[in-house]
Amino acid sequence: MSTPTLRASAALANVRYEIRGQLARRAHEMERQGYDIISLNIGNPGAFGFRTPETMRLAIIENLRLAEGYVHQKGIFPAREAVVMQQQERGLRGLTVDDVFIGNGVSELIDLVLRALLNDGDEVLIPSPDYPLWTAATLLNRGRAVHYPCHAAAGWMPDLAEMEKLITRRTRAIVVINPNNPTGAVYSREVLEGIARLAEKHRLVVLADEIYDQMTYDGAEFIPMATLVHETLCATLSGLSKIYRACGYRVGWAVFSGEREGCGEYLQGLELLSSLRLCSNVPGQWAVQTALGGHQSIRDLTRPGGRLYQSRETIVNAVAASKFLELVTPRGAMYGFVGVRRDRLADFDDQAFALDLLEHKHVVVAPGVSFNAAYNNHFRVTNLPESAVLTDVFRRIEEELEVYAHANPRGVSHLKAVARP
Question: Is the pTM value of this prediction over 0.85?
Answer without folding.
Answer: yes
